[in-house]
Amino acid sequence: MPLYVEKLDGGFAVSSPERPDRLKTLLYGKHRDSYFGLPVEDQKGKFVMSCLDAIDLLPNPSNVFEFYGHDPASAAQLAAITEAASIWNRTDLWEHVEFDVNSLFVTASQDEAVTSIVETAILQKARQAAFSYDDLVSLQDYFKNGGWPIHKVKQHPDIHVALRLMEPEDPSDDWILETVVRGVRSSSYWTPAAKKRFLSIEEALPPKWADLGDVIRNFQRGIIPFVSVVDEETDSFYYVPLDDQQVRDFLRHDLAKLQAFGYDVVLPAWLKEIKETKMQVRASASTGRYKSAAGLEQIIQFNWNFSLGDQEISEEQFRQMVEENRSFIRSGDQWFQIDAQWIQEIRKLLDRSEEEEWTVRDLLFQELPEELTLPAEDEDDDDPLIQFQLHQSLESYLTQLQEKKAFPEVPPSPRLLTELRPYQQLGLNWLAFMRNESFGAILADDMGLGKTVQLIAYLLHVHEQQPGGKPSLIICPTSVLGNWQKELQKFAPSLRVSTHYGSNRGEITTDADVVLTTYGIATQDAETLQQIAWSSVTLDEAQNIKNMQTKQSRAIRKLRGVHHIALTGTPVENRLSELWAIFDFIHKGYLGSYKSFQETYMAPIERDEDEQAKHRLRMKIQPFLLRRTKRDPDLQLNLPEKLEQKEYCALTTEQAALYESLIQESVSQLGNLSGFQRKGLVLKMLSKLKQLCNHPALYLKEPFDDAETMLERSAKLAGIVSLAGEIAARGEQCLIFTQYIGMGHLLQHCFSELYDIDSPFLTGSMPKGQRDHLVASFQAGEFPIFLLSLKAGGTGLNLTAATHVLHADRWWNPAVENQATDRAYRIGQQQFVHVHKFLTIGTIEEKIDTLLEQKQSLSDELIHSSQWITELSDDELTDLLTLS
């Protein structure tokens, strides 16, 4: 693969004109030291790597690809990196390293570019191990003798060897640094008695360890380069007296180097505790009475208090302590060792609180220094290092936002044609409050809890408060556009709704209350949409803007609205790239640039599982995120055990044209056929229409294209695949029923290509043994999506592991659908079951669904099959088939 390689200060920028999407995987796919490239940023197609990474990665391509310079300059840089790598891996590298006052020089090559790479890589490796330049100088002989590259020492499987620092029994005596051992299953260390202290190691050891003298000897030989008070090898156990100054030097300089190489050092318990002791700081914050958003700019006043042990320290004493740069401090009758760097950080914190004039907004948005926002190191610690106390008025306002309590009540509009559940009423109150306070909002309730109806209630409230104002914009995936049309018409018919969609969509109607459009259309018409100052802009399935560099994401994040709202059923706090993109929409710049977000949160959390970084991020986003789940007992949702929901999908232009053509062709034949022939044509036509509603490729009997292309041709397919993918991502399981083998295979194709999910398809031709094995595997949670033929899987199966049931195509007999649903909703089901029935708008699917609802009072026999459809008159049948 050709590479462009550009030299940078301390590293290189690498890019490729061919398959740039594969370059990061090829470079970092096996590189553990960089966590497989996780924190590496793509800067417009270029990857920046250190000299250390370059000599580790570029000369070692995969077995499939070979890298070469795309131009002469790149070829020269690659050649230099390759030669530098060969020098780096030589066993005699440190025979060719020389030191000056502040620099090191590698003399293994005449090529200055090559030696510069090796020199920089050595310094970078040293920084990784927390070694200073002086440490490298002092350890040069050690590195020459095989101590390079830096590796941790390995302990023996039978005994554990360590250095122990022992405090004097009498203050006038010396400290002792000695070698100690213990069995791997023991917690007590052993060292020779005084009378055996100067015997050889083998003579001093007890019989059970008599043959392990070389293990201890090798340990003592290994620590010589790191301990300043040990300068020669001995055949006895180390026993070295130290005075106070030597102890301080050992703790400040030698201890870190020993630990860097993996040598165990045992310190007195009290000394270790003192080493970790920090001063207790209390900061009390207050301001004037907080009333509204205008109060966000009020300045916080701090009152600082300090203590060490049980003794209070005044701010003046603290500042004097800082000026004297003291590390050992006496408080009462106790001595404490204080981290001088931490003390300096606290002093800076005091100065910043006075100079920068932090406001309530800084406090709310967690823009205060992390020292004031970090949790106690131990949740059970009642005395954290920094106690941050708020005045009651500030605390109640923050509690209101962070715990989602006590918002002003917003009465639902009398024009809302449904009754809100208590948690949905809270959602309405919260959305209205966030609008009044000029805060963006992420409503991230579980699917099935009614995010749609909460937003509709909010839109009614806003547009009744401001009649004739600017419209609200809702952007959604194409697959749910029909759902939004139906739900708005059902729950808020008084809202004037305009749909901006299709090839003949025309100008945007700004005299409507609500404008509906899709992500694709919003991207195409971005300039027009960006010129309108919307009353609100809502993104449904907001994770669609997760790829922040795409044209779609950038265009949508530039939209202007009085209030920005994101709806998502995905727990975005666990998907950090999505989280940044969504916050850039609701509060541009709030989480900083994407690069700084990666450095501050993504890398520590995803690479290091950093709990403090998780806490900081959680506190930062919490005021703007409302998430409830069906499993939350505190909400007392009182949901039904089974919720049935219709998922409306629009036909694509291709589907609509084929639908019209088939209807015209079929209806023209009806009058010329006998009764038996007519019934046969109607049944055949119904099957074709249902397959066409599923996907045009099934109707046209075409081979499958790539998954993305197939989704573009059918909103129903896109909706089913997206919903099932989200269910699987949440760790839940679902059943998908279809009448057509082709639809099942198409869904398998999409799940495999898009999500790498193997979704078995149970059909009538499957042997019983294989069928039973699949059922048992699904019940055991071995795969998340189970496809079933409606007839083969509609009865006789127990599939209670599923919490969702998706009906891809509608059966004319509700009893057949209900039997299929009951594979999950049956005795033994411990969880809430959500049933999704997919319908294409304006087609025979929707019209027959309406008829079935109207025929509920009729006998079951009438609707037990599709035969009743064949008995309709030509006019009734034409009306039923005509595309609305």
Automatic annotation (TrEMBL):
<dbReference type="InterPro" id="IPR014001">
    <property type="entry name" value="Helicase_ATP-bd"/>
</dbReference>
<dbReference type="InterPro" id="IPR049730">
    <property type="entry name" value="SNF2/RAD54-like_C"/>
</dbReference>
<dbReference type="Pfam" id="PF12419">
    <property type="entry name" value="DUF3670"/>
</dbReference>
<feature type="domain" description="Helicase C-terminal">
    <location>
        <begin position="719"/>
        <end position="878"/>
    </location>
</feature>
<dbReference type="InterPro" id="IPR000330">
    <property type="entry name" value="SNF2_N"/>
</dbReference>
<dbReference type="Pfam" id="PF00271">
    <property type="entry name" value="Helicase_C"/>
</dbReference>
<dbReference type="InterPro" id="IPR001650">
    <property type="entry name" value="Helicase_C-like"/>
</dbReference>
<dbReference type="InterPro" id="IPR027417">
    <property type="entry name" value="P-loop_NTPase"/>
</dbReference>
<keyword id="KW-0347">Helicase</keyword>
<feature type="domain" description="Helicase ATP-binding">
    <location>
        <begin position="432"/>
        <end position="589"/>
    </location>
</feature>
<dbReference type="Pfam" id="PF00176">
    <property type="entry name" value="SNF2-rel_dom"/>
</dbReference>
<dbReference type="GO" id="GO:0016787">
    <property type="term" value="F:hydrolase activity"/>
</dbReference>
<keyword id="KW-0547">Nucleotide-binding</keyword>
<keyword id="KW-0378">Hydrolase</keyword>
<dbReference type="InterPro" id="IPR050496">
    <property type="entry name" value="SNF2_RAD54_helicase_repair"/>
</dbReference>
<keyword id="KW-0067">ATP-binding</keyword>
<dbReference type="GO" id="GO:0015616">
    <property type="term" value="F:DNA translocase activity"/>
</dbReference>
<dbReference type="InterPro" id="IPR038718">
    <property type="entry name" value="SNF2-like_sf"/>
</dbReference>
<protein>
    <submittedName>
        <fullName>ATP-dependent helicase</fullName>
    </submittedName>
</protein>
<dbReference type="InterPro" id="IPR022138">
    <property type="entry name" value="DUF3670"/>
</dbReference>
<dbReference type="GO" id="GO:0004386">
    <property type="term" value="F:helicase activity"/>
</dbReference>
<dbReference type="GO" id="GO:0005524">
    <property type="term" value="F:ATP binding"/>
</dbReference>
